[in-house]
C-alpha cells in the first residue's frame, strides 16, 4: 500500500504554504486527483487537526469539518498530531505530584480525541471508510536547563507510564485508529539517545519493546478500582475519576494465547489486581515482564543506562474456571 501524506500541519504559521481549511481542501482535491491518474492504488493522508473539546468553535472542529465537507471523496486517512502538554503547558516549575497525575492521565485526552474525530468522520462523510492517522504524537515537557535544544528532553519512568497508557488507548480505539507514529526517535524527543560511540534506551523506549509482543486481536476490557483527578495543562485535558489501573488485553488469532498490558499509575503504592476472564478455557501464565525504577522520576543516562529497565517478573497466580 502506498501512503501519501498531502501536506503537513498547513494550518500552522510555521509551515511554508500555510493556508485556510478551504484552501487546503481545494489543494488536496487537485493533488490527489492528479496523483491517482498516475497510480490509482495510492492512499491519501489528509491534514487534520487535533480535537481537544466538543466546543463548536474548537479550531480542530472547524478545520476538520471544512476539509471533510469539501474533500472527503479524496481522503483515505485523516491525520492529527498531538504533543502533550506541548509548549502551551511549559512552566518554570511544577508541583511534581500534580504533574505526575496529569502526565499519567494524558492518554485519556488522546483517546477522547480519536473518538471525536471518528464522530466527525461518521457525521460528515457517511459511507466513506476514512480512518484516523495519529501520525505524530509524544510527550513534550520542557528540556532541562542547559539542554541546548528544546527537543532534548529527559524522559523518566513516569513518562514510560504515559507511553504505555497511549498504547492502551490505541488498543481501545483500534477500530477507528489505523496509523500511529511516535515523533521523534533518536536524540529529538528521544526513545534512544546516542553520541558518536554509545547509545542507551530512554524509559519511553521500553513500552515499545513490551507492546510488540501483544497479539493481533484487541479484546474488550473493563476495570474497577481506585481513581484520581488530574489538572489540565497545555494540550492535556483535566480528568475526574481517572483509573490508577489501566489495562489492555489482546488475543492471538488462534485463540490459544492472550497477552495483557497492565499499568499502575500510582506514584508510590503497589496495586494488586485480579483478572477475570470470560469465554476462555483455563489460561496458564507463561511469562511476565516488569518495567520499573527506583522512583517515578528515575531516568537513564550514559552513566546509568539501566536505572529504568525491564526485568522478568514472577508469574502471577492463575486459576481456571
Large-scale geometry: globular
Q: What does the main sheet amount to?
A: 5 strands, parallel
The mean pLDDT is 95
Report the β-strand fraction as a percent range: 15-25%
Along the chain, the helix and strand elements come as EHEHEHEHEEEHEEEEEEE
Rounded to an integer in angstroms, the radius of gyration calculated over CA atoms is 21 Å
Number of strands: 14
Number of domains: 1
Count of alpha/pi helices: 5
Q: Which structural class best describes the helix and strand composition?
A: alpha/beta
| Distance linking N and C termini | 44 Å
The low-confidence runs, each spanning 5 or more residues with pLDDT under 50, are none
Helix content: 25-40%
Q: Strands of the largest sheet, in order across it?
A: 1-2-3-4-5
What would you note in describing this structure?
This protein has one domain. The chain is globular. Helix 2 runs parallel beside helix 3. The N and C termini lie far apart (44 Å). The chain has 321 residues and is α/β, with parallel strands linked by helices. The strands form five sheets. The protein has a five-stranded parallel sheet, covered by helices on one side. It is 26% helix and 22% strand. It has five helices and 14 strands. Helix 3 links the parallel strand 3 and strand 4 (131-140).
Structure in a nutshell:
This protein is 26% helix and 22% strand. The chain is built from five helices and 14 strands. The strands form five sheets. It has a five-stranded parallel sheet, with helices on one face.
Amino acid at each position: 500500500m502506498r501512503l501519501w501524506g498531502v501536506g503537513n500541519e498547513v494550518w500552522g504559521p510555521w509551515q511554508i504554504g500555510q493556508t485556510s481549511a478551504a484552501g487546503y481542501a481545494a489543494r488536496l482535491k487537485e493533488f490527489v486527483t492528479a496523483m491517482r491518474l498516475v497510480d490509482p492504488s495510492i492512499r491519501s493522508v489528509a491534514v487534520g487537526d487535533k480535537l481537544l473539546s466538543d466546543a463548536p468553535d474548537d479550531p480542530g472542529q472547524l478545520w476538520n469539518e471544512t476539509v471533510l465537507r469539501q474533500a472527503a471523496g479524496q481522503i483515505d486517512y485523516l491525520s492529527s498530531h498531538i504533543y502533550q502538554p506541548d509548549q502551551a503547558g511549559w512552566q518554570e516549575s511544577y508541583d511534581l505530584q500534580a504533574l505526575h497525575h496529569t502526565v499519567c492521565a494524558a492518554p485519556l485526552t488522546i483517546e477522547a480525541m480519536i473518538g471525536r474525530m471518528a464522530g466527525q468522520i461518521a457525521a460528515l462523510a457517511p459511507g466513506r471508510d476514512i480512518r484516523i492517522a495519529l501520525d505524530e504524537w509524544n510527550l513534550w515537557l520542557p528540556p532541562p536547563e542547559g539542554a541546548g535544544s528544546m527537543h532534548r528532553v529527559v524522559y523518566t519512568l513516569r513518562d514510560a507510564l504515559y507511553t504505555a497508557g497511549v498504547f492502551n488507548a490505541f488498543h481501545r480505539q483500534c477500530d477507528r485508529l489505523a496509523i500511529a507514529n511516535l515523533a521523534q526517535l533518536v536524540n529529538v524527543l528521544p526513545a534512544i539517545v546516542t553520541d558518536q560511540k554509545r547509545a542507551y534506551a530512554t524509559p519511553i523506549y521500553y513500552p515499545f519493546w513490551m507492546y510488540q509482543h501483544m497479539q493481533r486481536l484487541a479484546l474488550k476490557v473493563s476495570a474497577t478500582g481506585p481513581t484520581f483527578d488530574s489538572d489540565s495543562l497545555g494540550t492535556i485535558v483535566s480528568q475526574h475519576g481517572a483509573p490508577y489501573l489501566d489495562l489492555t488485553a489482546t488475543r492471538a488469532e488462534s485463540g490459544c494465547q492472550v497477552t495483557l498490558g497492565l499499568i499502575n499509575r500510582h506514584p508510590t503504592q503497589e496495586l494488586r489486581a485480579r483478572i477475570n476472564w470470560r469465554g476462555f478455557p483455563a489460561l496458564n501464565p507463561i511469562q511476565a515482564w516488569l518495567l520499573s525504577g527506583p522512583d517515578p522520576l528515575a531516568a537513564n543516562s550514559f552513566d546509568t543506562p539501566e536505572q529504568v529497565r525491564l526485568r522478568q517478573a514472577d508469574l502471577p497466580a492463575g486459576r481456571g474456571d
